[in-house]
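We treat protein structure as text, and this decision shapes the records that our systems exchange. The tokens are whole numbers drawn from a learned vocabulary of local backbone shapes. Below, we set out a record of this kind in full and without editing:
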Amino acid sequence: MWNRTVALGLVLLTFLAHPSVTLAQRAAGPHEWSIVKAVPPGDELVVKLKSGKTIKGRLRAVSDIHLSLARGENVMELDQKDVQKIQRIVPKSAAKPTLIGAGTGAAIALAGVGVAAAADDTGGSEGELAAAATGIALLGAGVGALVGLVFGSRQKKVLIYESL
């Protein structure tokens, strides 16, 4: 009797953990218009139509079957049936490229100071060399951070809808 109860409990647990049973609790995928309806007005979107035309603009309104985009003074009304895919433009953080640029700039500057110090035969004091190395490393880090900021502060497109 005990073995039967344990076996029946294991079978029931297996059925409850089966993917077809848990699919009822799935998140909305990129093929559902409800994701587009959740985007707040004013966000920038790139809409590719089934005709091949691409439209970029700010979201004005979304209904169950229509999408309204603003491009300057122009407002475009699009039907859901004409839309192939929609991407949301999201700003990308510039922190990581800025830090990588700062580290790279400081490393290159310190390598240059090391080469210059090895070739220097004037016999300057170590304090002067340390001060020069610190100053040049900070300057290199600043230049590297600016380069990382300029090249790293871009936007990325996130797919939010794609028709079947």
